[in-house]
Amino acid sequence: MYDKALLRSNLLGGAFTFATLPSAAFMQTWPQGTWAYTTDVGPCYWNGTLWVPSSGASGGAKRAAVDLTAASTNNLAPAADWPTAYGRLILSASGASSGLATVTGLLAGTDNQRVWVMNNDATTTIQFLALSGSSSAANQFDSVAGGLLIGPGASLDALYDGTLQKWLLR
């Protein structure tokens, strides 16, 4: 009935899994913040009451694909109309010669905006530095000490907190 990886992920206490499921109508009670991909809605998350399409866009959220052409990127602005209705950010890193690309900030989102971020690079790890002064305060990431690393093919969940004016990563 449900994807076992999704269930296992949530039983582990917030681990992130992006699973393909048949329909949001069949999924009813999951821990708040659970992410899923359904064939009828696209990327969505459970808000505790219902499945919400990512960033509130009907039929799934817009996607931005960005190539990080420098070893370090500050105040990343993925698209001219970012953050309106975006929920997916696909990154590659052609500018990272050392196998590591760094992002210090992402253009501020809207309160409670959720974005699924995927590292689409085949060989480069992407580092998201926490509270880096290289990016504007409202564009910074607030996560575990130092930040988060996502390897090739891995992903993370970002939530913009309008009160803190920071991206929360997990």
Radius of gyration: 16 Å
Subunit arrangement of the protein: single chain
The count of DSSP E runs of length 2 or more, i.e. the number of strands, is 14
What helical percentage do the residues reach?
under 10%
Output the helix-strand order: HEEEEEEEEEEEEEE
Q: Could you list the spans in which at least 5 consecutive residues all have pLDDT below 50? A: 5-17, 56-60
Annotate the secondary structure layout.
Blueprint: H1 4-11, E1 20-21, E2 35-38, E3 42-46, E4 51-53, E5 62-67, E6 72-73, E7 86-92, E8 100-103, E9 114-119, E10 125-129, E11 141-142, E12 147-150, E13 155-161, E14 166-169
Parallel strand pairs: 1-2, 5-7, 6-8, 7-9, 8-10, 11-14
Antiparallel strand pairs: 2-3, 3-4, 9-13, 10-12, 13-14
What does this structure look like?
The protein has two domains: 4-56, no CATH class; 62-169. Helix content is 5%, strand content 36%. The protein has one helix and 14 strands. The strands form three sheets. Strands 5-7-9-13-14-11 form a six-stranded mixed sheet, with no helix packed on it. Strand 13 (155-161) and strand 14 (166-169) form a beta hairpin. The longest helix has 8 residues, at 4-11.
